[in-house]
Design a protein that fits this description.
Number of helices: 21
Low-confidence stretches: 1-6
Strand order of the largest sheet: 2-1-3-5-4
Strand content: under 5%
Shape: globular
Structural class: mainly alpha
Order of helices and strands: HHHHHHHHHHHHHHHHHHHEEEHHEE
Oligomer: single chain
Radius of gyration: 25 Å
Length: 525
C-alpha cells in the first residue's frame, strides 16, 4: 500500500529533497527581474512602499489593511531598516529618513528584496510539503507532492511578485503540519504552534479564516483517541489554548487593525467592492463552481486533477481521515473565497500544497492498483512513469512562464521603441499593462482603462498617441454582450493610423501593445 511504502535508502532520502529544493530555487529565481528597473508589478507598491515608510519614519502603522499582509510588510521593513543602516552609515536604533530618498532615486533593489522574500516563503512551503507528505504517508509521497508543487504554473508566476500569496501558503501548510502533530501528540506545544501558524496565516490574508474549520475538524477527529488514551482533558485544554493563541498572534502581528479601525474598515469595504473588469459578474454558487471546475484544474492541470479526484474518492471509500481532512480544507477554503464578489485564479495558490499532497496520494494508489501487491519494482516504475506524465505539462508551462518573466517583455520593447522613435514631449495617453513610461521625455496621462473616456476625447487634439494593452482589452472581449460599448471603442480606435505593434510569443512576456496616432485638433480622423 502507498501508505506503508518501503522507505528509500538513506542516500536517496538526503539527495532527492535537496535536488528538489535546488530546482525550486532556480525555477523561482529565473524570472525575478521581470520589468525592472522600469516599473514594479501593479500590486507590489502596496507592500514595498509601506515597508519603506515604516523603516524611514518609524511609523509602524501601515495605513492599509486590505490583506492585511503583515507577514510581508513588517519583515521587509525590518530588513530595509538594518540593510540601509549597515550599508549607508545609518542609524540602527532610530528611523532612517534617507531610506525614502534612496528608494525614490532607485527602487529596483528594494523590490528585488521583496521578491526574494516571497521566493523564500515558497521554498519553505516546498520543504514543508515534503515533510508533511512523508509524515502522513511515506517518503515517496513527500517527494511526489513537493515535485508537483514546484511546477504549479500559477505559483511559479506569482513567486516573483511582492504579494501575500506565498506567505499565506506557507503558514497554511505550517498550520496543517502542527494540526497533524497535535492529533498524534496532544502536547501544549503543538496546540500553541498550530494556533500561532493560524494567526500568522490570518495576518497574511483574511481568507485563511477557513483554517479554523480544519482546526475544529482535527479536534473532533482526535476526541475518540484522546478519550481512549486518557488525554481528553489535556486535548480540550490544548485546543482552547491554540484558538486563543491564534487570535493573540493575529493581534500582535497586525495591531493597527484594531488601533486604526476606521482605516481598516474602509479598506475592508474597498476589498469587498463588487466591480472589477474580468473578475466580477458571478453569484456565490457560480463563483464556487468556477473555483472547483476552472481555477483549481487550471492551477494544477488535468492530470494532477484526476489524481486528486481519485485520492478523494478513495479517501471517502476507505475512510482515510488524512485524505478527508485535506479534502475538507479544500471545500472550506473554496466556500470562504467564494464569499467576496470578485474572483481570482491566484487565490488558489494557498491550496497548492494540499492539492499536491492529494495528487501524490492518488498517484500512489493508482500505481499500487496497477502493479498489484506482489511487484514492488513494477510499482516503482509505474509511479515514475505516472509522475512524469502528470508533471510534464505543468512543468513545460512553468518553464514558459519563467522564461517570459526573464525575457525583455513587449512592454519594455514598446518603451524603448517609443523613446527612440517618437518626438520628445509627445502627449501620450496609455492604459494599465501598456508600456511603462516613467522617466521618459513624454507627457504621459495614465488612464486605467481607455474606454472609460468617450471616444471623442481622443479625437479632440488633447493627445498625440494612444497606447492599448491586450491585458485590458481581452477582459472586455471575454464578456462581449456585457461590454459591447467598450469593445466598440477598441474597434473605432483600431481604425486610426497604426504606429507600432508589439506581440508577445510563447517565450516572451508582456501583452500585445498597440500604439495609435491620434488626430491633431480640428483634423478629421
Amino acid at each position: 500500500m502507498f501508505d506503508s511504502a518501503k522507505p528509500m535508502n538513506r542516500q536517496t532520502t538526503r539527495l532527492v529533497p535537496i535536488a528538489i529544493l535546488c530546482a525550486t530555487w532556480l525555477l523561482f529565481l529565473w524570472g525575478i527581474q521581470r520589468e525592472m528597473p522600469y516599473e514594479p508589478f501593479i500590486d507590489e507598491p502596496i507592500f514595498v512602499t509601506r515597508a519603506i515608510h515604516m523603516a524611514a519614519t518609524g511609523d509602524l502603522n501601515p495605513h492599509w489593511f486590505g490583506n492585511p499582509g503583515s507577514t510581508t510588510i513588517y519583515p521587509l521593513a525590518v530588513y530595509y531598516h538594518f540593510w540601509y543602516a549597515a550599508t549607508n552609515a545609518g542609524d540602527f536604533l532610530h528611523p532612517n529618513p534617507g531610506l525614502a530618498t534612496g528608494f525614490d532615486a532607485d527602487f529596483t533593489v528594494y523590490y528585488l528584496v521583496g521578491r526574494l522574500l516571497t521566493i523564500a516563503y515558497g521554498l519553505l512551503t516546498v520543504a514543508l510539503t515534503y515533510r508533511l507528505g512523508k509524515a502522513m504517508w511515506s517518503e515517496r509521497a513527500g517527494i511526489l507532492a513537493s515535485t508537483f508543487l514546484i511546477f504549479h504554473p500559477t505559483l511559479v508566476w506569482h513567486t516573483t511578485v511582492v504579494r501575500t500569496d506565498t506567505s499565506a501558503m506557507f503558514f497554511v501548510t505550517l498550520a496543517l503540519w502542527y494540526c497533524f502533530r497535535m492529533l498524534d501528540q496532544p502536547r501544549q506545544r503543538n496546540f500553541v504552534l498550530a494556533g500561532a501558524a493560524i494567526g500568522l496565516a490570518l495576518s497574511s490574508r483574511y481568507l485563511m479564516v477557513s483554517l479554523y474549520g480544519v482546526y475544529l475538524a482535527f479536534f473532533l477527529l482526535a476526541i475518540p483517541t484522546w478519550r481512549r488514551n486518557g488525554q481528553l482533558t489535556q486535548g480540550i485544554a490544548g485546543f482552547v489554548l491554540g484558538g486563543v493563541v491564534s487570535i493573540a498572534v493575529f493581534a500582535l502581528t497586525t495591531p493597527f487593525f484594531f488601533l486604526d479601525w476606521h482605516t481598516a474598515w474602509e479598506d475592508l469595504l474597498l476589498e469587498a467592492r463588487t466591480n472589477h473588469i474580468g473578475a466580477d459578474g458571478k453569484n456565490y454558487w457560480d463563483r464556487a463552481f468556477w473555483y472547483l471546475t476552472n481555477a483549481i484544474p487550471l492551477s494544477i492541470y488535468w492530470g494532477q486533477m484526476g489524481a486528486v479526484v481519485v485520492a478523494i474518492g478513495l479517501g471517502i471509500w476507505q475512510r482515510s481521515w488524512r485524505v478527508l481532512v485535506l479534502a475538507l480544507f479544500v471545500l472550506m477554503y473554496v466556500a470562504t473565497v467564494s464569499v467576496p464578489t470578485l474572483f481570482w485564479k491566484r487565490w488558489m495558490i494557498q491550496l497548492s500544497p494540499v492539492l499536491a499532497l492529494l495528487a501524490a496520494y492518488g498517484l500512489g494508489k493508482i500505481a499500487t492498483t496497477l502493479a498489484g501487491r506482489t511487484s514492488p519494482r513494477l510499482e516503482k516504475g509505474i509511479v515514475a512513469l505516472l509522475a512524469v506524465l502528470l508533471v510534464a505539462q505543468p512543468a513545460f508551462l512553468s518553464y514558459q512562464l519563467a522564461e517570459r518573466n526573464r525575457s525583455t517583455s513587449t512592454r519594455i520593447e514598446a518603451r524603448e521603441w517609443m523613446v527612440e522613435n517618437l518626438p520628445p514631449s509627445s502627449r501620450i495617453i496609455t492604459e494599465l499593462y501598456a508600456a511603462p513610461l516613467a522617466n521618459t521625455p513624454f507627457v504621459v496621462t495614465q488612464q486605467p482603462y481607455l474606454p472609460e473616456r468617450p471616444f471623442d476625447d481622443y479625437l479632440a487634439g488633447e493627445f498625440d498617441y494612444a497606447i492599448t494593452s491586450s491585458e485590458i482589452s481581452n477582459r472586455y472581449l471575454l464578456e462581449k454582450e456585457r461590454y459591447a460599448s467598450e469593445i466598440d471603442f477598441y474597434v473605432q480606435l483600431s481604425k486610426l493610423p497604426l504606429v507600432a505593434e508589439f506581440v508577445p510569443t510563447a517565450l516572451q512576456g508582456g501583452a500585445t501593445i498597440v500604439i495609435y496616432k491620434l488626430p491633431a485638433q480640428g483634423a478629421t480622423p
